[in-house]
UniProtKB/TrEMBL annotation:
PANTHER family per UniProt: PROTEIN SCAI
Protein name: RGS domain-containing protein
PROSITE patterns noted in UniProt: RGS
Lineage of producing organism: Eukaryota, Viridiplantae, Streptophyta, Embryophyta, Tracheophyta
RGS domain span: 78-137
Taxonomic superkingdom: Eukaryota
Amino acid sequence: MSIEDVVPKTFHALVESAERKFARVRDAPLHPYAGSGAHYGHFFHKVFKAYMRLWKYQQENRVRLVESGLQRWEIGEISSRIGQLYFSQYLRTSEARFLFEAYIFYEAIFNRKYFEGSSKDRGVRFKELRFYARYLMVSLILNHKEMVKLLVEKFTELVEDSKANFRGTNFKEWKLVVQEIVQFTRADTAILNIKPLRYCAMFDSHAASLPYVARFNAKRLLKFQDAVLTSYHRNEVKFAELTLDTFRMLQCLEWEPSGSFYQRHPIESRENGNLSDHSVASGLIDINLVADMVDPTLPSNPKKAVLYRPSATQLISVIATVCEGLPPDSVMLIYLSAPGDSVTDNTSQIKSLDGSSKFSKSNAPSCNHHEQNNFLCQNHVTMNGDSSQYFENYLWLGPSRNGGSNCLYPGDIIPFTRRPTFMIIDSDNSHAFKVLHGAERGEPTALFLSPQRPSFKDPSGTDMAQNGSQFTFFLTVPLRAFCQLVGFNLSNDDMDMYNDLENIVSTAFSEWEKILCTSTSLDLVWAQLLSDPFLRRLILRFIFCRAVLTLFRLRESGGRQYLPVCIPELPSIVSPKSKAVQSSISRLANHLEVADCFNFHE
């Protein structure tokens, strides 16, 4: 067999081998807590190895492969698959370097137009559409807003072109994908976005209070390394399986990779010491560029499971896996954003022989996991042995038409309170989870519970389904949430105003940080979390959110349902009516000339 025959034959054998290996991990859960995590990790390594071998072979034999009929889209498909693998590894590990590796491959495909000419082949066109969707996802998470804007335009044009060139094919699903990304980017860029959502020392470390943080010590300090995030709301803004709320919280629990707002690097490679432009056909991609994008001195990001519309049993299974593997002196964060309901709203109450109130299971949502595990919770806390309070209210984790499999009850969480847990419940039924306090099985739970209803100066102008949850907004982008509350729209022409407002908020956070670090009345539940920068930032933002919403006067009656709750209570010196807190909110309101929206003298 001649060399001309060996090269293409070897190439196609490598392609087939890589695709077979990829098929084994195609449906692997994209989070670090899969039941067979080590099993999947082993196969991911094999798939990476197969594709990198394939990639290297096509680089070394490019001329012969092109002569034998290699198409540009085939190079693009290999690159796209490698990018997909890197992104999967990011989701499974939360390591930023994998996210950048994915971006590098996708950017090279885009710049070199590997899929150009796909209008002649429907199969290639579908590969190109999938590439754009994946590149958009990576660009979104990296906050490359200009690239996202460009990709949305190109993607929209491509879908329209597909409808015109392949008239016998239904592109309805791709039209829906376009609608999703347009709505998502509109919501994400509706308000000026200057600072990153990720933790950045430049913005989130406060020089005045840093010595107090460094000296802070408690009887026990917990490490934050694991989080479970999920959200579901009817008609919520999402792109693929990433909702706006989990998108914001995901970034809030990561380090800003470069220490400043993402630095862009051109895709270049060196040959013979000179910079070469490979924008045409070379297929060379400098995968070492990521070393220039990520600060090696940063700690690892906490691992995160971002779950899209899980059933209650799926969510519980993931929480159980996290709990089981949680290292000593560590805490897991559980973030749930979902609507809620009450069993008593849907069932008839009947009295048992001993006079205690019970509900009729025949009329309640059918929740098998509740019925199977109810015996585990029969003796939680209440002296009379009545456990029904833990199963009277629930969150909907998915469409109600799926029945009780989507019901998550406070009682479902109790078995996992044997380990340190920080729960953030963002729901109109969040206060139902107050019953967890005192019902823990070994470790007191830290709880942030959202208001049951949002507050706005102009409620008619704010659609929560299209803008995300207000409480999550406060915890992830507090200044933007404040502006949204009072109806003030910051624009690029307001940079001086924005910087002034950020300075006010930063000064306030620094002062509150100092107060918490020196307080003698800080509950140990919060004290043991305070040394972690991510959790400390969430605590400071909660103080801000609670104060703003407590002092806000332009809302309907029924005040408490508009306020968030933390359990156990934070020290009164950082309460909404304390001088240290109220004076900062007053400064912020006065600077925006919206002081008439607040009550500062009660």
